[in-house]
Design brief:
Layout lengths: L2 E5 L14 H9 L9 E4 L3 E3 L5 H7 L9 E3 L11 H5 L12 E6 H14 L8 H6 L2 E6 L5 E3 L2 E7 L9 E7 L2 E6 L7 H9 L4 E7 L14 H13 L3 E10 L9 H10 L3 E2 L5 E2 L4
Parallel strand pairs: 3-4, 4-5, 5-6, 10-11, 11-12, 12-13
Antiparallel strand pairs: 1-2, 1-14, 2-3, 7-8, 8-9, 9-10
The protein binds zinc ion (3 copies).
Length: 286
């Protein structure tokens, strides 16, 4: 399994284009890994997690075409994770050649929200209609939490997030080739229900990717902070959910409390995890 980080920022990107805070100014000066787009990852070349607003820019900047993407797991409908205009722009009606049918997976609540946004802002037909599936070269699948499902070479389980309670926010464990990655954003501290479910589903993760919206000097609230990530990593190791040589990465990194990449990377190294950056590719699995 290959994982490419297309974006690793929270909702407002890093630097936030309108912001003159110290972190944003420093990120502009440093460039490189300190420049973060809104969060999304590509698994191999055919599975996207979140149809985010920056995936077009990411595809261009990091040299990873999305031409083979035929599956998308959607965590939730917040705008920093779901830009429905991509469904139009990748459709045959917009002149796109050769794109496979996109199988779009999301919770019922996320689909309802997405359909409202789609019909209000983008098109005169429902996203959940046969017309949409035909026009957009799309097949929609409703995901139920804690019921594993299969497609292509993947086995996927969705776990409840602690985020946007009415929107059916989900976190995904994706298994393929004998390896499992857990994509854990957006969420505040994981619900006990989710911890129990990890054990019920005999989860053993090779790679865990966690929400790291808030930095080392901030408390968490509706998202995880650095110290909550550390607690989660320790608990995962203690409970045997992470392989002994498993790796943990921070993503969804906000500008308010997180320093630029090299500084955050040092902090993370001292606390048993790593910091993802845009364009990072994970390919070696031990
Ligand atoms: Zn978000
Ligand atoms: Zn800022
Ligand atoms: Zn969110």
């Amino acid at each position: 399994m290959k994982i490419t980080f297309l974006g690793t920022a929270a909702a407002n990107a890093f630097p936030e284009a309108f912001c003159t805070c110290g972190n944003c100014e420093q990120a502009r000066q440093l460039g490189g890994r300190s420049l973060r787009k809104r969060s999304s990852v590509l698994v191999n070349d055919d599975l996207l997690i979140d149809l985010g607003p920056d995936i077009m820019a990411a595809s261009q900047l990091h040299g990873c075409p999305l031409v083979n993407v035929r599956y998308c797991l959607q965590t939730h409908p917040h705008a920093d994770h779901l830009d429905l205009s991509h469904l139009l722009s990748r459709s045959p009606g917009f002149g796109v050649v050769g794109a496979p049918t996109l199988n779009f997976y999301a919770s019922a609540e996320t689909l309802t929200r997405a359909a409202e946004t789609f019909q209000r802002d983008l098109a005169g037909y429902s996203l959940l209609s046969p017309e949409a599936e035909k026009e957009l070269n799309l097949t929609i699948h409703t995901v139920e939490p804690l019921k594993p499902f299969l497609f292509g070479p993947y086995s996927v389980t969705a776990f409840p997030a602690n985020h946007a309670p009415t929107m059916g926010a989900l976190l995904y464990a994706v298994q393929s080739d004998g390896h499992t990655v857990f994509y854990g954003t957006d969420t505040a501290t994981l619900p006990e229900e989710t911890w129990r479910a990890f054990h019920q589903h005999e989860s053993l993760f090779d790679v865990v990717i966690f929400d790291h919206t808030y930095g080392p000097d901030q408390p968490g609230s509706d998202h995880l902070s650095a110290h909550q990530v550390i607690d989660h990593v320790n608990r995962m190791r203690d409970e045997g959910l992470l392989r002994p040589n498993g790796r943990v990465f921070a993503t969804h990194i906000a500008h308010e409390g997180n320093p630029v990449h090299p500084v955050l990377e040092e902090f993370a190294k001292d606390h048993g995890y790593e910091v993802a950056y845009d364009g990072l590719v994970l390919e070696k699995w031990s």
